[in-house]
Amino acid sequence: MNTHKLLISGIVQGVGFRPHVYKLALKYNIKGYVLNNSSGVEVVATGNEKSLKNFENELEKNPPEKSKIYSFKIISVYPDKKYSNFKIRKSIKNSYKTTPISPDLNVCDECLEELFNPVSRRFMYPFINCTNCGPRFTIIEDIPYDRPKTTMKKFKMCIKCIDEYENPLNRRFHAQPNGCHQCGPELKLTDNSEKMLFEGNEYSNVQNIFKQISHYLSIGKILCLKGIGGFHLVCDGLNDEAVATLRSRKIREDKPFAVMFPNVEQISEFCYLNNEETELLKNFRHPIVLLKKEKPCHIAYSVAPKNHFLGCMLPYTPIHHLLLHFYQKPLVMTSANISNEPIIYDNYEAYQRLGKIADYYLVHNRKINIRCDDSVIRVFNYKDYPIRRSRGYAPESIELDYEFRSQVLACGAEQKNTFALAKNAKIYLSHHIGDMGNYETLKSFESGIKHFSNIFDVNPEVVGVDYHPDYLSTKFGNQYAEQNELKIINIQHHHAHAVSCMVENKINQPTIALVLDGTGYGLDNTIWGGECLIAEYDKFERIGHLQTIKMPGSTSVIQHPWKMGLSYLYEIFGEECLNLGLPFLENVSQKQMILEMLKKGLNSPVTSSCGRLFDGVAAICGIRNNVNYEGQAAIEFEQFIVQDENQTYPFQISNSDGIIILQWKNVIEYLVKDVLNGEKCSLIALKFHNGLAKGLLDLTIKSRERTNINIVTLSGGVFMNIFLLNKLENLLKNHDFTVFIHNKVPTNDGGISLGQAIIADSTVNK
Ligand SMILES: [Zn+2]
Ligand SMILES: [Zn+2]
Ligand SMILES: [Zn+2]
Q1: Residues 109, 302: contact at Cβ < 8 Å?
Q2: How far is the CA of 187 from the centre of ligand 2 (A)?
Q3: 38 C-alpha to center of ligand 1: Å?
Q4: 106 alpha carbon, closest ligand
Q5: Which one of the ligands is nearest to 162 CA?
Q6: Ligand nearest to the CA of 746
Q7: What would the pLDDT profile of 123-161 be if each residue is shown by its tens digit?
Q8: How many other CB atoms sit within 10 Å of the CB of residue 12?
Q9: Alpha carbon of 128 to ligand 1 centroid (Å)
Q10: How far is ligand 1, taken at its centre, from the CA of residue 116, in Å?
């Protein structure tokens, strides 16, 4: 007989790991015990050599589906006693806590079967879950992950639930959110003045609730629904009037809404779907997947106006399944928030702040400890290309080939903020925090950092912040570092983008980084955003960039692309530009004022931003003068392209003090000619994209000639543009470059904190 101690770390708690070990122990006649400790799972196993080997092999090769093993250590030990059986022992808490916390998990097939099985005791129980599924991250207050440290602590389990909870062979063994109709959380349907309509968990009641809601949805009403990481606003996705009402009440003019469908089959009636997209929709993370609409697509027009894509998802909580069981149509499902504030996650706040935006409220009494928005992913070249990494992903640590020497806090950027905490080989990227320009988001950012440092036991020694002095995340980081007497590293925005892309691809050598972005504070105090960097983890050189231009009215140009359009024209045609007869300037009252600004250089910072170039060009083409959400003009411009052909506008390369400049001057001239000749916008958009891709290729080739570097990384918000990404990647590969793009974190500012953490760590430990 031999005895082994197994030390297993990774996502091994809250995913049915111990019952799985228990079953395997019975199968192979192993004695001993298994327990959760703060670094993972510990097993002491006694058996003969062959059965021990089989037991360990099977455990390592076939762990429970939702678990993820990072390390599996086997040590031979002397048993402290003779074990007569195999037991699951109580958790022990170590002095330091390092157990990864599982993201929230999509409801599993077995639970779904019970949910709709009239003889199951959880028939229509809206909070059904087990060790393989249910809420995790959003209900955990502290670790180790045990019920008293979750928001389930106030629900006392009934005898039947306790029996399941204590039976190692039961699927609900130590399922912390376990409960049933008798003892679990309860649903409540009210109107928007909090008047109770239905309450209680008896299945007849639950049925009544969802029948009533179906009726409301069918007559165009708007429902506010409490989900897993916050509230959603819900209405019938086929009812244009209902969607338009939701838009006007929420004051959200054009930004697309996501839609939840009862099943994949129904999605395929509206959108094109390939195998990878289907897989992604159905995996346990259940993100929103961006899919191409079919033509014609019968979803209400105002769900995603002027957009060829639709954000689709499948139900991921039992409440969603019940809702779509009774109302089998696509439902708009959008985060419930006030303009740019974070998603609302508290019952009281929901009623207070959303008020009459919704007609009815479906709430419950299980508290959400931390908010978490839906993730948004698209598939590009058969791989995930994240747009927002949040529910289902956070707070899972990102797999890197990097060992942190210091404990790091990275504060992220100003928009689409995420922060990151890192220690040893682990980096915990936060859920989506949002745009920092308001108090609610800042509060969420601060409390999020506190929560993460506690549950992952990270005590930052160094803080990484964006180089922009006015970002709220930077100000917070500075203050935090000062209060705790920590080192602070100021990180150039596009360097952080570049390193995010490098590190997630496990590249640790000098790289040509093309970073195309909206904004980012440059080392020369101008605004950068069309950058070619030679990037390493601890330093970079700006080897080339896009020709610069003035931003008349400073950051206000982001909302008003016509100002950029005018700026490009002025640069080439001077004051004559107003006499060209370009239609987009016809009814603009402030054009003279902006022209004055440009002439005198008033409030007109200089930028090399690629995002602004897209805005300006889109405006000149007449796509739109003003936008309702960031990047709207550029997104619509891309979508004008219908056919991929070879026509192009000529970008040119020049040299200024040793820096390679990508010139757009000729492009604007040709483009203006085309617009004046009444050329189709689809052709202009195509020529511009082709030209830019070719220009960037030339810029990269010049960089290779100077540096002999052959590896290229592509990052920055502009690479959300799939047409450009695809074109450029192909061109580069055809010229023998090795190209890397994002796959684990977003190419936009949501991925910045990853790069910041690496740069901060490698800079202080040079
Ligand atoms: Zn389950
Ligand atoms: Zn119960
Ligand atoms: Zn950026």
Answers
A1: no
A2: 15
A3: 24
A4: 1
A5: 2
A6: 3
A7: 999 999 998 899 999 999 988 788 999 999 999 999 999
A8: 27
A9: 7
A10: 13
Report whether pLDDT(93) > 70: no
Residue with token string 């030209």: 691
Distance (Å) of CA 363 to CA 200, 230, 232, 408? 11, 11, 11, 38
Q: Alpha-carbon distance 202 to 187, whole Å?
A: 10
Q: What pLDDT is attached to residue 295?
A: 85
Distance (Å, whole) CA 618 – CA 234 = 33
**Per-residue confidence (pLDDT) for residue 97, from 0 to 100:** 52
Compute the average pLDDT of residues 429-439: 93
pTM listed for this prediction: 0.91
Ligand number, closest to the Cα atom of 530: 3
Which percentage of the chain shows pLDDT scores above 70?
99
Q: How many helices (H) and strands (E) does the chain have?
A: 21, 30
* Of 313 and 14, more confident: 313
The closest ligand to the CA of 157 turns out to be 2
pLDDT at 738 over 80: yes
Distance 108 CA to ligand 1 centre (A): 4
Cα of 241 to ligand 3 centre, how many Å? 36
Structure tokens at 291: 């899919």
The CA 469 to ligand 2 mean position distance, Å, reads: 53
C-alpha 106 to ligand 1 mean position (Å)? 8
How far apart are the CA of 130 and the centre of ligand 1, in A?
Answer: 4
pLDDT at site 76: 83
CA-based nearest residue to 697, from 714, 681, 673: 714
Which sign does the torsion angle of CA 508, 514, 518, 522 carry? positive
Check residues 203 and 367 and name the one with the higher pLDDT: 367
Q: Residue 324: CB partners within 8 Å, gap ≥ 6?
A: 260, 261, 262, 315, 331
Contact 203, 181 (CB under 8 A): yes
pLDDT per residue over 360-417, tens digit each? 999 999 999 999 999 999 999 999 999 999 999 999 999 899 999 999 999 999 999 9
**DSSP string for 580-649:** S--GGGTT-TTHHHHHHHHHHTTT--EE--HHHHHHHHHHHTTS-SS-SSTTHHHHHHHHT--S------
* DSSP label of 484: T
State in Å: Cα 160 to ligand 2 middle. 6
Ligand 1 center–CA 112 separation, angstroms: 7
**Mean of pLDDT over the chain:** 94
C-alpha of residue 147 to centroid of ligand 1, in Å: 17
- Which ligand approaches the C-alpha of residue 158 most closely? 2
Ligand showing the shortest atom-to-Cα distance for residue 170: 1
How many other β-carbons are positioned within 10 Å of the β-carbon of residue 5? Answer: 15
Q: Considering every ligand atom, which ligand is closest to the CA of 122?
A: 2
- The pLDDT value recorded for residue 124 is 95
Find the ligand nearest to 172 CA: 1
Instruction: Name the helix (H) or strand (E) containing 189.
Output: strand 187-191
Structural domains of the chain, ranges and CATH numbers in brackets: 2-88 (3.30.70.100), 187-364 (3.90.870.40), 549-709 (3.30.420.40)
Determine the pLDDT at residue 95: 44
Closest CA to 410 of 766, 760, 764: 760
Q: Which ligand is nearest to the CA of 185?
A: 2
Q: Which two tokens stand for residue 294?
A: 């079919």
What does the buried/exposed string (b/e) look like for 417-447 if buried means 16 or more CB atoms within 10 Å of the residue's CB?
A: bbbbbbbeebbbbbbbbbbbebebbbebbee
DSSP state of 368: P
Ligand nearest to the CA of residue 121, numbered in listed order: 2
